[in-house]
Amino acid sequence: MLSGKDAAVLTQNFLEQQASHEGTGFALVEGVRAQVRGDFSFDCQSAAYLRDGDLRDIAAGTDYLRVDGHTGECRLLGAVESAGLDPF
Q1: Max Cα-Cα span within the chain
Q2: Half-sphere exposure of 12 (CA within 13 A, CB side)
Q3: What pLDDT sits at residue 86?
Q4: Please, which residues have CB within 8 angstroms of residue 8's CB and are 6 or more apart in sequence?
Q5: What are phi and psi of 13, to 5 degrees?
Q6: Global pTM?
Q7: What is the number of helices (H) and of strands (E) in the chain?
Q8: Using alpha carbons only, what angle is made at residue 25 by residues 24 and 31, rounded to the nearest 5 degrees?
Q9: Which of 2, 60, 77, 79 has the fewest CB atoms lying closer than 10 Å?
């Protein structure tokens, strides 16, 4: 079973390597995470928005990122799936 710290590291690596594209980097939203039934959920947003707070940089449509607490598999959840889970 992963710790919350290990899950956060996996999540940040996933965002840097797989979820960021076309010059848009993503980062974890500080302090917005939850553990539900062994899985970890994190909120992410564009790094530029988190850094500067400029609404022009906000990543619309980004949702939660889920880490499987047993396998470490990371995946972005879609809007419908995120709304149904309400992990926060």
Answers
A1: 39
A2: 11
A3: 60
A4: 28, 33, 40, 42
A5: -60, -45
A6: 0.77
A7: 3, 4
A8: 135
A9: 60
Can you tell me the distance from the alpha carbon of 8 to that of 33, in angstroms, rounded to the nearest whole number? Answer: 9
Compute the distance between CA of residue 53 and CA of residue 68 in angstroms, rounded to an integer.
30
Place of tokens 């988190």: 50
Structure tokens, 75: 């995946």
Decide if 70 contacts 1 (C-beta within 8 A).
yes
**Residue 52: exposure state from Cβ atoms within 10 A (0-12, 13-18, ≥19):** exposed
Sign of torsion over alpha carbons 33, 34, 35, 41:
negative
Contact criterion met (CB below 8 Å) for 45 and 59 = yes
Mind listing the pLDDT tens digit for each residue in 36-88? Answer: 888 999 988 888 999 999 999 888 765 688 999 999 999 988 777 777 666 55
